[in-house]
Amino acid sequence: MQFTGSDSYIATDDLTMAVNAAVTLERPLLVKGEPGTGKTELARQVAAGLGLPIIEWHIKSTTRAQQGLYEYDAVSRLRDSQLGDARVHDIGNYIKRGKLWQAFAAGERTVLLIDEIDKADIEFPNDLLQELDRMEFHVYETGETVKATVRPIVIITSNNEKELPDAFLRRCFFHYIQFPDMETLKRIVEVHHPGIKERLLTTALTQFYELRETQGLKKKPSTSEVLDWLKLLLAEDLSPEDLARDGASALPKLHGALLKTEQDVHLFERLAFMARRQR
């Protein structure tokens, strides 16, 4: 069972090696990288490439580790007992299975995505250590133990907003998705915008990389944002000449697809002002 990428997802050699190493070691794959570099999509493409179902658990700041295992709805059980509902005699009726339980009980190999783990509380990763390591957990309300009959492929993404605990990191295979170079990005663009003219693509990407490397930029535009930008350029039928920036503005055409903070817009406005003064 080897992941080699797909026609709709350009995976570098080191990324495919990381995926296959994690599968071989039966350890979670922890993927970090800039937002918009395809971390979440990787899990979906691994599932598609290996022909496996995927279970997605998207983490929020309020998410608790227990929710990934199960939740016991004591309030509903109390209400039903007051109404004389016969369901109250089976506590299992009030146990809601979490994403880990679903993956453990699937009966077949699945891909389990734990997306943006760094959004949760700092204790969240530690609270899942034993369950991800042993692939089992105990349900105290029913007395049963849920154990994975087939170990899922676990892919965990992080935007590096918080440091993850060392004990958690030791149990993962780690990979950082580097921002793609020009040639790799051209291959990615070809997947999403096939047949784009070479001159337009080279001009646009050269301008894009120059923008990313501007000193003082608060948020660098990502892969997903350059794809949106190119879609707009194609929709407006712009030529390479149309992308030329004059001294009046250092901002690229349709810059709202690339620059997402007012600080970065003002930065380019200041750069244009300074360039005019130096003339």
Can you characterise this structure?
The protein has helices at residues 13-25, 39-50, 65-69, 74-83, 99-104, 124-127, 129-134, 166-170, 182-192, 198-212, 223-235, 262-277, and strands spanning 29-33, 54-58, 70-72, 95-97, 111-115, 136-139, 144-147, 153-158, 173-177. With 279 residues, the protein is an alpha/beta fold. The chain has a 5-stranded parallel β-sheet with strand order 2-5-8-1-9. Strands 3-4 form a two-stranded antiparallel ribbon. Strands 6-7 form a two-stranded antiparallel ribbon. The longest helix has 16 residues, at 262-277. It starts with 12 loop residues before the first helix and ends with a helix.
Helix content: 40-55%
Helix-strand pattern: HEHEHEHEHEHHEEEHEHHHH
**Total helix count?**
12
Shape: elongated
Terminal-residue CA separation: 62 Å
Largest sheet: 5 strands, parallel
Mean pLDDT: 90
Strand content: 5-15%
Strand order of the largest sheet: 2-5-8-1-9
Comma- or semicolon-separated keywords:
two-stranded antiparallel ribbon, 12 helices, 279 residues, 42% helix, 5-stranded parallel beta sheet
Question: Which secondary structure elements does this structure contain, and how are they paired or packed?
Answer:
Elements: H1 13-25, E1 29-33, H2 39-50, E2 54-58, H3 65-69, E3 70-72, H4 74-83, E4 95-97, H5 99-104, E5 111-115, H6 124-127, H7 129-134, E6 136-139, E7 144-147, E8 153-158, H8 166-170, E9 173-177, H9 182-192, H10 198-212, H11 223-235, H12 262-277
Parallel strand pairs: 1-8, 1-9, 2-5, 5-8
Antiparallel strand pairs: 3-4, 6-7
